[in-house]
Amino acid sequence: MPKNGFSWYEGDLSVKNILKLLENSNETSDIGFSLKVDIAYPKSLHDDHNDLPYLPERIIPTGSKIKKLVANLKPKKNYVVHYMALKQALKAGLILEKVHRVLKFNQSPWLAKYIELNTNMRKNASNDFEKDFFKLMNNAVFGKTMENVRNRMNLKLVSDEKACTKLINRNTFKDIKIYNNNLVAVHLFMDVLKFDKPIYAGFSILDISKTLIYDFHYNCMVKSYGADIQLMYTDTDSLIYYIKTADFYADLTNKPNILNRMDTSNFPTSLPCFCNDRKKVPGTFTDETFGEIIEEFIALRAKSYAYKIVGQEEKIKAKGIRGHPDRGREMAVEQFKHTGCPTNEYTPFRVNISLRSYKHEVKTISTIKLALNRKDDKRVVLENQINTLAHGHFRIEEAEELEREDVELVEMMEGCEY
């Protein structure tokens, strides 16, 4: 991970030289790099990489108004990337077209001992509180590396009218909240911002963690199952697969390249692939169904899916909808199916109960929310309303071009005189 010695690389920025520089670097090198580059995504890779394109980026998807992190097949311009993520993408067939700038730095595993300490403490934890606590101790450090200090503010509680007027007249004044006739809160921008957060560490953690996901997907799962595997859903650090096989858990005993990257300590001890050796080891994958089989799965969009486990209750994930008792009764796999059907005008609005703080008073709020939404603007949904294409796929462009040609032909025919 980056440590110190940050400076702009002053050598030759030609593609040939940078490729050689990357070839001579690995994850344990004393010197690391962050690069701003242009990348081409060859059409020949689009079908193979459609499920999980390399180098995701924040873009405004078609039909959306805000930027979202989207894994797409579009060419990348001025893309900032860690050298390990770039090496992985280039090895997969992406093409480096231009290098704008390169930042070099000294690197070392300076956070490793702290992470290992919390991991071991979590591994030996005897209750859920300790497990969550030591997990949070690691996650909190990452959060601080990515903190945007520009979002900080000064808050002044004032009960004097003159003092309040004085604060409002400051050029750092942002907002005011009136609690009563004798108390107001004045929000002020910071007078001085100190950029003392190691954002370079958070950036590197994000990019390196992505390489683990891509390596597991392409070099383990796809390599082992080929055409018999399909990625149905992914979100940050999770993958849900449809695999054509008699028994995946039996397969693991014969596929050490997959088994060695999985934490199977939560499996039933009766399964031959059960093992405690990789319990809570960072970088390993955990089966959230504890070795049980998913018999039905449906996903509508990011953070909105449901599935059935053989012989068990349905599991529902719906971001923004609180887990009150009504949710389990009113939201199920069947409701997800109805929502996903394009010919069905089913719009599942639900009462959502939550705790909110207004003017430092905690209140129970009841709102009507659209619980399920089939519009997934991070992918392009095909006519069968099941399969999707990643943004930038050449088949989307071909379909749009044919549609434009049809429109032009109709306009020409309408303009002809007979």
UniProtKB/TrEMBL annotation:
Coiled coil: none annotated. InterPro entries: DNA/RNA_pol_sf, DNA_pol_palm_dom_sf. GO terms for biological process: DNA biosynthetic process. This is DNA-directed DNA polymerase. It comes from Aphis craccivora (Cowpea aphid).
